[in-house]
């Protein structure tokens, strides 16, 4: 199994297929400001006239920029965010050209909270959304499905799926802990033919999760019959993850992945790209 560690950054064209140019430009502009500030800090660090206090004050003032309480731009955010989205697009290229049967992208930062017009929830660019648009625009894929089993609703991906031009091209299915769990969206109201939100109560067990997946997710996915399956693979529904309160175990993530592989084998020649989303420290 090939393990690829170098890949191109996402292009502006790829980013603009999902995000507004205003959002992309804003993120890159903010990143540039922090990068220039840190370059100046490097200069100060070698200046014999600079005091320790000068260096400390410069670092505190210019080393980061908070977009919101969760989303902070730092020195290498641009590089990481562009390559996270680029990795997802490269994985789509590899799967659609037959270079590999499927792919998993172990990337940071995550992406599914990033809206077309804004960053939020640790996410700057919507990696899996950018990859979906790349599959449609770059490879002519007619139907792309995204299944998101992160414990938090992927509000950014949901928003894009609801745009009129995606009605028959992009299916979004999310299993997540119901509000008031962050980001307080994803209500299980089927008011869109191509968005299926499956809410879970706090303390949902493995058996309850599997039942919902079999009865709600699988029939919807099979009926859509995608040509490519993308997975927003968040592992924060694990019972030991501190970011929410769902009681899944490692075996549940194996189980759900096996179910998705089986469906992909039946409807889209096994073509799957999985992209890492949430999952914090489990002690």
Automatic annotation (TrEMBL):
Localization annotation: Nucleus
Q: Which class of enzymes does this protein belong to?
A: hydrolase
GO CC annotations on file: cytoplasm; histone deacetylase complex
Choose any GO biological process term that the UniProt entry carries and state it.
Answer: epigenetic regulation of gene expression
Keyword set includes Repressor: yes
Q: Which InterPro entries does this chain map to?
A: HDACs, His_deacetylse_dom, His_deacetylse_dom_sf, Ureohydrolase_dom_sf
Q: Looking at the Swiss-Prot or TrEMBL record, what is one Pfam family this protein matches?
A: Hist_deacetyl
Q: Which GO terms describe its molecular function?
A: histone deacetylase activity, hydrolytic mechanism
Is Transcription regulation found in the keyword set? yes
Name the keywords, alphabetized: Chromatin regulator, Hydrolase, Nucleus, Repressor, Transcription, Transcription regulation
Boundaries of every Histone deacetylase domain copy:
5-279
Enzyme Commission designation:
3.5.1.98
Q: Which family does it belong to?
A: Belongs to the histone deacetylase family. HD type 2 subfamily.
Q: What PANTHER family does the record tag this protein with? A: HISTONE DEACETYLASE (PTHR10625:SF5), HISTONE DEACETYLASE HDAC1-RELATED (PTHR10625)
Name of the featured protein: histone deacetylase
- Supply the source organism for this entry: Aphanomyces astaci (Crayfish plague agent)
Q: What is the lineage of its organism?
A: Eukaryota, Sar, Stramenopiles, Oomycota, Saprolegniomycetes
């Amino acid at each position: 199994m090939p393990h690829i560690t170098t890949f191109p950054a996402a292009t502006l064209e790829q980013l603009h297929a999902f995000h507004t140019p205003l959002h992309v430009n804003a993120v890159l502009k903010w990143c540039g400001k922090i990068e220039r500030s840190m370059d100046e800090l490097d200069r100060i660090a070698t200046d014999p006239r600079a005091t320790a206090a000068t260096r400390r004050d410069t670092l505190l003032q210019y080393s980061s920029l908070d977009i919101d309480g969760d989303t902070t731009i730092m020195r290498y955010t641009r590089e990481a965010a562009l390559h996270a989205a680029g990795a997802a697009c490269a994985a789509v290229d590899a799967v659609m050209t037959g270079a590999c049967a499927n792919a998993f992208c172990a990337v940071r930062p995550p992406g599914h909270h990033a809206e077309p017009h804004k960053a939020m929830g640790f996410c700057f660019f919507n990696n899996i959304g950018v990859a979906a648009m790349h599959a449609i625009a770059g490879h002519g894929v007619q139907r792309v499905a995204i299944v998101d089993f992160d414990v938090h609703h992927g509000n950014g991906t949901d928003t894009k799926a609801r745009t009129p031009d995606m009605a028959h091209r992009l299916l979004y299915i999310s299993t997540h802990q119901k509000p008031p769990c962050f980001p307080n969206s994803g209500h299980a109201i089927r008011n869109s033919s191509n968005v299926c939100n499956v809410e879970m109560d706090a303390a949902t067990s493995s058996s309850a999760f599997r039942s919902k997946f079999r009865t709600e997710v699988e029939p919807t996915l099979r009926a859509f019959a995608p040509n490519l399956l993308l997975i927003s693979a968040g592992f924060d529904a694990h019972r030991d993850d501190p970011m929410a309160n769902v009681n899944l175990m490692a075996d549940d993530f194996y189980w759900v992945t096996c179910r998705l592989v089986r469906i992909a084998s039946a409807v889209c020649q096994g073509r799957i790209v999985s992209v890492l989303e949430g999952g914090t420290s489990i002690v």
